[in-house]
Amino acid sequence: MAVITSLITQNPIKITQVTDTHLYGKPSGTLLKMNTNETLNHVIELVKQNEEEIDLVLATGDIAQDASEKAYQNFLDTVAKLDAPFRWIPGNHDSAKVMSRIAGGTETGEKTAQLNNWLIILLDSSILGQAHGKLNKTELIFLRSVLRAAEQDETIDHCLLTMHHNPVPGNSAWMRDIGLENGQEFFDIIKMSSKVRCVLYGHIHQELDFKHEGVRCFCTPSTCIQFKPKVTSFSLDRVNPGYRSLQLYADGSIESEVRRVSGEIFEADYNSPGY
Ligand SMILES: [Fe+2]
Description:
There is one protein chain. The protein has a domain at about 5-60 and about 65-85 and about 95-155 and about 185-195: Metallo-dependent phosphatases (Purple Acid Phosphatase, chain A, domain 2), CATH 3.60.21.10. About 20% of the residues lie in helices and about 25% in strands. It contains five helices and 14 strands. The chain has helices at about 35-50, 70-80, 95-105, 135-150, 185-190; strands spanning about 5, 15-20, 30, 35, 55-60, 85-90, 110-115, 120, 160, 195-200, 210, 215-220, 240-250, 255-260. The strands form three sheets. Strands 1-7-8-9-10-12-11 form a seven-stranded mixed beta sheet, covered by helices on one side. A five-stranded mixed beta sheet has the order 6-5-2-13-14, covered by helices on one side. It is globular and about 50 Å long. Bound molecules: fe (ii) ion (FE2).
């Protein structure tokens, strides 16, 4: 297991998460009538207004809706405006293959980053052609080995794990089958580590901050459409796109906020029965 990037930086460490951008090769592309390129640009502007000295930007999947090279290139060009180190992981709408081809030779697709005494671990939970997720055998071996190495490493005190899918079932009945299939196995593995502080994800397009099995879990709103929580069938929420900022402290504590675009009304098909 190689921790490729290691950086001494400020305390707290500043992370910005953008997720579920659902971009198309054509910038005019819309998801349930919402122009995803336009909403991403609004969110990136909001990040620029609010965040200074970002140590790491994490893009946690569903970056492209059509898995096209153009969509990924557009995303990279847009995120470059933040002028910060950057990592991405695939979601259910992405092509992990196309992403790794585009990221080839850069740090974008690396699976770990050490910032001060925190280790950030990025996991691929996507299954080609499926909405739900799973950590496959390779990812589980990687997770076990990286946590075991971190446990022995005196320079690492805390770990943040991130993936696209929700490892804890969503709070709406229609979401029951779209989360991480082996969520319990995931938590059983991370329980063996004394250093895991936080699990960060996207996929269910809403803001959540709770504890599960003693670990702080965060879900982050999409940069486009939002899913209404606690409903039986699919329903869009009338709240604006946003992002999450996290401050990771040397003592293991975490502060985090979701910020949403304000002063704009974005069109969407609020009566759609699905997406
Ligand atoms: Fe999504």
